[in-house]
Design goal:
Enzyme class: hydrolase
Protein name: Amidase carbamoylase-type protein
Bound molecules: glyoxylic acid, manganese (II) ion
Keywords: Hydrolase
Organism: Dioscorea alata (Purple yam)
Number of helices: 10
Helix content: 25-40%
CATH class of the largest domain: Alpha Beta
Distance between the termini: 27 Å
Shape: elongated
EC number: 3.5.1.116
Oligomer: single chain
CATH superfamily of the largest domain: Zn peptidases
Order of helices and strands: EEHEHHHEHEEHEEHEEHEHEH
Number of domains: 2
């Protein structure tokens, strides 16, 4: 293990060539399922073990990467590990201030997990373009299509563009009985109105590919008999069309300004935490995946990923591809998430065969 990531590998006969990497994440949101990310890490280990057991000798080395903090719930930004590896300038500068809800800084958390990363050597984790010949991620679909259509494997062609925004309103607060309705500047109602505006702006694009979610609203002081004097909202919006997604972000900003004005509250923060472009999967990898599913006699379909993944950021430094497997009713980010052993085994077989092909290129 070094300060880049946790590695498990199979050394190629020509280790000077760019390696073929695979992996995912094992962190999770609160009250999540057990398969999101984990399948792509344990599956990667198993795929390489299968190749080792079969005596396969790759030309390019094969490596497993376990990314830290893919979910945004600990340090407030998604795909922290892969973003850093891909050299996000904003993150390298912003990470110094990042703390979790226990007030543990990113660097203290990294240190206690055994990493040697610090403010001084943070930029050394950045991967140079071409460090990897290709990167592949196995993941549950997190949507219902493969199961509904009885298809074994999804070959991902592109990953949708995510954005996240933090907004804060401040009002006068006051006593829930004594302050009359016309006198109020209720920061909680401003937040509620903004949540509905997010839904409206997403729906008015008229596209099923536009989505928006308000997953966090925190009201201060949080007492039933006190008018909220502060509200904090976190908004997630995504689209496969980056321009359309950017249009939604702009409208959310305008609504935040308008709502604050109309309700007499202060818009004390409007911060775009990330506004990432979409990523396209690489043709060579897609072709290799098609060869693998055909060899294994598995049904497959081409599909886009509406969820984001570490692959979105790995695509900035390496050709990238993703394999989806069905999951029960498309459930994800909730405890009912499930993928069958058979489907996981299919995914691992496709991964192993594709890694093998790419490692000989
Ligand atoms: C990943 O966890 C996502 O929210 O798409
Ligand atoms: Mn997730
Ligand atoms: Mn995931």
């Amino acid at each position: 293990m070094d300060n880049k990531a946790a590695y498990y590998s199979l050394t190629g006969s020509d280790p000077e060539l760019g390696a073929v990497a695979t992996g995912s994440h094992i962190d999770a949101i609160p009250y999540s399922g057990k398969y999101d990310g984990v399948v792509g890490v344990l599956g990667a280990l198993e795929a390489i073990n299968v190749l080792k057991r079969s005596g396969f000798q790759p030309k390019r080395s094969l490596e497993v990467i376990l990314f830290t903090s893919e979910e945004p719930t600990r340090f407030g930004i998604s795909c922290l590990g892969s973003r850093l590896l891909a050299g996000s300038e904003a993150l390298v500068n912003g990470i110094k201030e990042s703390v979790d809800d226990q007030n543990t800084s990113f660097f203290d958390a990294a240190k206690s997990a055994g990493y040697v990363v610090s403010e001084e050597n943070l930029s050394t984790v950045i991967l140079e373009k071409g460090s990897y010949f290709s990167f592949l991620e196995l993941h549950i679909e997190q949507g219902p299509l493969l199961e509904e259509e009885g298809v074994s494997i999804g070959i991902v062609t592109a990953i949708a563009a995510p954005a996240s925004i933090k907004v804060e309103f401040e009002g006068n607060g006051g006593h829930a009985g004594a302050v009359l309705m016309p006198e109020r500047n209720d920061a909680g109602l401003a937040a509620a109105e903004l949540a509905l505006a997010v839904e409206k702006h997403v729906l008015e694009t008229g596209s099923m590919d536009s989505v928006g979610t308000v997953g966090i609203i925190v009201l201060h002081p949080g007492a039933i008999n006190s008018i909220p004097s502060k509200s904090h909202i976190e908004i997630d919006t995504r689209d496969i069309d980056e321009k359309r997604r950017d249009g939604i972000v702009e409208k959310i900003h305008q609504s935040s300004i308008d709502i604050a004005k109309r309700r007499g509250v202060k818009l004390s923060e409007f911060r775009i935490v990330n506004q990432d472009p979409p990523a396209k999967c690489d043709h060579l990898i897609i072709n290799a995946l098609e060869v693998a599913v055909r060899q294994l006699n598995l049904s497959h379909k081409m599909m886009i990923s509406r969820a984001y993944h570490d692959s979105l950021f790995m695509a900035r430094v390496s050709p990238m591809g993703m394999i989806f497997i069905p999951c029960y009713k498309g459930y994800s980010h909730k405890p009912e998430e499930y993928a069958s052993i058979e489907d996981i085994a299919n995914g691992v077989n496709v991964l192993a065969l594709t890694l093998a092909q790419l490692s000989l290129e």
